Amino acid sequence: MRAGSEAGGSRPRFFATLTLLLALAPGPTRADSASAADELGALLVTGGTVVTMDAGRRVIPDGAVAIVDGRIAAVGRSTELGERFSDATRIDAGGSIVMPGLINAHTHVPMVLFRGIADDLDLMEWLEEHIFPAEAAHVDEEFVRWGTRLACLEMLRGGITTFVDMYYFEDAIAEEAERCGIRAVVGETLIDLPAPDNATWDEAMTYTRRFVERWRDHSRIRPAVAPHAPYTVSGEHLAAAHALAEELDVPLLIHLAEDREEIAEVTARTGMSSVSYLDSLGILDDRVLAAHVVWPTPAEIDRLATREVGVAHCPQSNMKIAAGVAPVPAMLAAGVAVGVGTDGAASNNDLDLWEEIDTAAKLHKVTSGDPTVVDAREALAMATIEGARALDLETEIGSLEAGKRADVIIVRTDGLHQEPHYDPYSLLIYSTKAADVATVIVDGRVVVEEGRLLTLDAAEIIERARLYRDRIAGR
Ligand SMILES: [Zn+2]
Fold first, then answer.
1. What are the per-10-residue average pLDDT scores of the chain (475 residues)?
2. Domains plus CATH for the chain?
3. How far is the CA of 224 from the centre of ligand 1 (A)?
4. 415 CA to middle of ligand 1, Å?
5. Ion ligand 1 — residues with CB under 5 Å?
6. Where are the alpha helices (DSSP H) in 181-218?
7. Rounded-to-integer distance, Cα 433 and Cα 437, Å
């Protein structure tokens, strides 16, 4: 969403209130540092149609994926791998599709607790009369933890194995992500306003340095530096954030060129539109993952490609807020790595990446008048290997290939909305729903089995979410 709405944007009064409230908030609870993932036997997912998303886009009928020590050991025919990995624990994927886990390239997970709080409103009315007051009254570390648990429950059950997040209390988000077994790229939002957990820019930078150092060697949690946007962070601070990301060698997450109002504000202040402005600061490079990028000029699209900037396309959020339609076909043609994100659930209203890729595949056909753009295979690539490339993680995740981390999902194909089917990409993009995901494996560990999340107590989380709803609605 735009204008720092998830964070409070340019509304200092909100942060001032929150900062006071925080003094009363309970202290952080520590995550269990060891997880069940430490003891992993070999797994063999066998009998399904394997959609690899590798460079050749191989699809293997009656295929298998062998997993050893959290990584993919081999991908091939069931008969062949069945012999090679005869001691492995077998997971029968017969009649299903086996594919890489989905990558949600942009979100603000705790905002699930504001799902549906206010819809179909003018952006400013929505922000000022609904979101900001709700955040000021309710967001604290405990809120962030329960929101993250609910979001991870929804994402894992829907086949998302990696998410990219920018919010506050990001240490708590990282701990909850670690605990439930998902993979995450997480950045504490840096903004030129008092934030809920850090009153000043310097405090937030100190927090970020400590946060990155804490998580930098974790196999599933990748810390990042996350300046909010070009209109909420000064040029000097944007450069400082980038220098920190460079020094610590981590990604930089930012909202960029989201709507016309942003472009007008940045242009009035700097004489340049948002992408050119960041480039003039020398901070556009391959460690940057920019969310939205709805309004780049053609020359700026070339610049994004040359600088190897990754883009997180959020079609449903852009549509709901009427931000515009990102020029995705042009970005793809220029070679920009484009992933797909849900954005926060207050502006979507779910964390369902299947809906996003279905939407992405259709939206650009409407605006271009060309039904051949963003075909089903390209749309699936955006949620898998291209999303990984946007994150500079394509050597680790995003496709089923020997040596990569074992983030694998099994998708049922026998739903009434799926029968009959002729082509796996068509089936996955245009017919499949999040509820069709049966099994989810992250880093070689089964976290969803027959649609049930093994690492979180769904009933307890839903009960807590409803309590938050009652409190937020003033009941
Ligand atoms: Zn956002």
1. 40 31 32 41 96 98 98 98 96 98 98 94 78 84 98 98 97 98 98 88 98 97 97 96 98 96 95 98 97 98 98 96 96 98 94 98 97 98 98 98 98 97 98 98 97 96 97 83
2. 12-33+102-390 (3.20.20.140), 40-101+405-453 (2.30.40.10)
3. 15
4. 33
5. 343
6. 201-215
7. 8
